[in-house]
Design goal:
The chain is mainly α. It has eight helices and no strands. Helix 3 runs antiparallel to helix 7.
């Protein structure tokens, strides 16, 4: 008898709770933890500057404004998206090279690749990049026999004695700023990809 009574009471209690949360025409129901339903978003394309917007939710917001207010008061244009600070570097990315076009010797002596020397994926990606950006001039094996070299004399033979001892930093700098007949490719090839090409060129020289 007692077990049946507890069951009936449980069913009645559950029904009462569900009924109190149900929404109707004149009753929108109850919201538990309204801050979870109506969090304050910092969205780039919406600017609600009225600090009273959403105060009717009465969610005990401690920051002194309504739930719908989402403008950034710390930005002079009230924008939520801001340009990164100058010279900002993304997490996990190598630091930018602070050298000029005249610093080839410094680059050759000081710049070091951010990639491990025993990473085969660097050489693999470097080959693909070399085929896209370099092969038409320097040739498939670096012998200055690409299609462009047939029309324009003076393309560097990467397997020539003068180039066998150049460092990856040297190659990186030349790709970035250009040298002689070669134009600068810094705006076309990312720093990481320049290092990959440099690594592949050194491997290409070893094979030849």
């Amino acid at each position: 008898m007692k077990l049946k009574t507890f069951r009936y009471l449980g069913i009645i209690t559950l029904g009462a709770v569900l009924a109190s949360c149900a929404a109707g025409v004149d009753d929108t129901g109850l919201e538990y933890a309204p801050q979870m339903y109506h969090s304050t978003p910092y969205e780039p394309l919406t600017q609600i500057t009225n600090e009273d917007a959403g105060t009717w939710l009465d969610s005990n917001d401690e920051d002194g404004h309504g739930e719908f207010y989402n403008s950034n008061p710390y930005n002079q244009f009230k924008m939520n998206m801001r340009e990164p600070v100058a010279n900002t570097v993304r997490r996990g990315q190598p630091l930018p090279v602070r050298l000029s076009v005249d610093d080839l010797e410094v680059a050759a002596e000081t710049l070091e690749s951010p990639f491990a020397t025993d990473d085969p994926s660097v050489v693999k990606k470097g080959k693909a990049l070399y085929d896209s950006y370099c092969k038409h001039c320097h040739g498939e094996k670096g012998n200055a026999d690409g299609k462009v070299a047939e029309a324009y004399a003076g393309v560097a033979n990467l397997n020539g004695a003068a180039y066998l001892e150049i460092t990856e930093g040297h190659i990186f700098h030349v790709i970035t700023f250009g040298k002689g007949l070669m134009g600068a490719h810094g705006s076309q090839v990312s720093p990481e990809d320049r290092w990959r090409i440099a690594r592949y060129v050194k491997e290409l020289q070893k094979k030849n």
